[in-house]
Design goal:
By secondary structure, the chain is α/β, with parallel strands linked by helices. It contains 22 helices and 13 strands. It has helices at 2-18, 38-52, 67-79, 96-100, 108-114, 116-119, 124-127, 152-158, 166-171, 173-178, 190-204, 207-214, 219-222, 225-240, 249-257, 270-276, 312-326, 328-338, 354-365, 372-375, 378-393, 399-411; strands at residues 28-33, 57-62, 86-90, 130-131, 134-135, 137-139, 147-151, 182-184, 261-265, 285-289, 297-298, 302-305, 368-369.
């Protein structure tokens, strides 16, 4: 049965390359994801269009809200015996228990046939899909959180230059406030404040110190002087965000787009919103990788997993989709609209905008770090997120107290 399914996958892949499609039996495949903003919807439509062109049917299962909202729903359905055909998750440790329970489809045959080990860059992305030597997901992009997005209109209104690094960004805050502009846009969700903390840490500490805390879980380093600077900067950030008063990340991005906020610390998926709004990178807005302090990116991102099915036709369609998601044309079309970087190093991204070109160069130079999704367990990530959210929303919590609690979490991290 596996051979039959694989042969069908190979036939479809050949058809895609030659421009002809001849699928023996079209299959509907429900695909769950949490891409619902304007830029995200435009990007995921590229996946649906390509899959539908094979003669199969993409049944969109968008779940409103963030990944934190969607993941429990997705996992509950899989465990509860109501699996979808495919689902977005982040590549990393989120799916470990599902894999160990035998609930996710082994894609090793597809990966070997398509040569994923030779084309996926960096190789850590495929490693994050691998457990006990078997491959269980198809990575589709590289998303980095390490960006500061800046509104040219906001700084022109305030009469100050667009910042080029974190210190300049903080220093320009009072001039923005004087013109009724919020210095830092931030949505009121725990994952967004947690993301901001992680970005600030990467930008302000040395790589050795960052690894000592996030990989080696060294509580003494987490409580030390270099991480003190991180918490002081995070304190600056929470004060700069007062008055932001939005909930969702794309609403915060819109404050920057409309010049109502000076900047936003957020992932490169914000770029899709700028594109939908018709703004031009380098002309209407500036993007600073590593907050302008370090040209470095983390290499997280999204991947698709395929819950085990009893139907051979469904399994064949799952493998068709898995191969398609990594194919050159689909990678280009999707990532140009998503604002993310492709997971292939052998495709033409010459039409990418100024911000994407910055990211591509950093990736090519090898200035990359793994994400917390890969290095830290979901439980540890959850504890950190709760702490950062509490600190962000309680101005009476001191920097000393927050750092001590963080060091305690890292002391028992897994």
């Amino acid at each position: 049965m596996l051979l039959k399914s694989f042969k069908k996958t190979a036939l479809v892949a050949t058809a895609l390359l030659t421009g002809t499609v001849n699928v023996a039996s079209a299959t509907e495949l429900e695909v769950t994801h949490w891409w619902t903003s304007g830029g995200e919807a435009a990007a995921v439509a590229e996946f649906a269009k390509a899959f539908n062109a094979t003669g199969n049917t993409w049944v969109d299962g968008a779940i409103a809200g963030s990944g934190g909202t969607a993941r429990p729903i997705i996992i509950s359905r899989i465990i509860g015996g109501e699996p979808m055909g495919a689902t977005q998750l982040n590549h990393g440790r989120q799916a470990e228990e599902l894999i160990e329970a035998g609930l996710l489809l082994d894609l090793t045959d597809v990966a070997e046939a398509e040569g994923w080990k030779d084309i996926i860059n960096p190789s850590k992305l495929l490693d994050a899909c691998t457990l006990d030597g078997r491959i269980y997901c198809a990575p589709v992009n590289i998303h980095s959180a390490q960006w500061l997005w800046l509104s040219h209109d906001a700084y022109a209104t305030a009469g100050v230059a667009v910042p080029t690094n974190w210190d300049e960004f903080v220093a320009a805050g009072p001039a923005l406030r004087a013109k009724g502009i919020v210095p830092l846009a931030m949505g009121q969700q725990a994952w967004q404040t947690g993301l901001a903390f992680g970005v600030i840490a990467v930008a302000l500490v040395s790589e050795d110190v960052w690894y000592a805390v996030n990989r080696d879980k060294d509580a003494k380093v987490a409580a030390g002087a270099e991480y003190r600077r991180v918490f002081e900067a995070f304190d600056d950030a929470r004060k700069m965000s007062i008055g932001s008063n939005v909930n969702d990340w794309n609403q915060a991005t819109n404050l920057v787009i409309t010049g109502k906020a000076g900047g936003q610390i957020h992932g490169d998926w914000a770029q899709g919103e700028f594109q939908v709004a018709g703004l031009v990178a380098g002309q209407d807005y500036t993007c600073l990788p590593g907050l302008g302090n370090r040209e470095i990116l983390d290499t997280g991102g999204d991947a698709f997993y395929f819950p085990v099915q009893d139907d051979a036709d469904v399994e064949a369609a799952q493998k068709v989709l898995a191969a398609l998601l990594v194919s050159p044309a689909v990678q280009v079309a999707f990532n140009l609209k998503k604002g993310s970087l492709p997971i292939r190093g052998d495709i033409d991204m010459s039409t990418a905008n100024d911000c994407m070109q910055k990211g591509l160069k950093i990736l090519a130079d090898g200035n990359i770090l793994p994400t917390g999704d890969i290095l830290l367990s979901p439980d540890t990530q959850g504890q950190i997120s709760e702490l950062m959210n509490a600190f962000w929303n309680d101005l009476y919590m001191s920097v000393d107290d927050a750092q001590a609690k963080y060091a305690s979490i890292m002391a028992s991290a897994d």
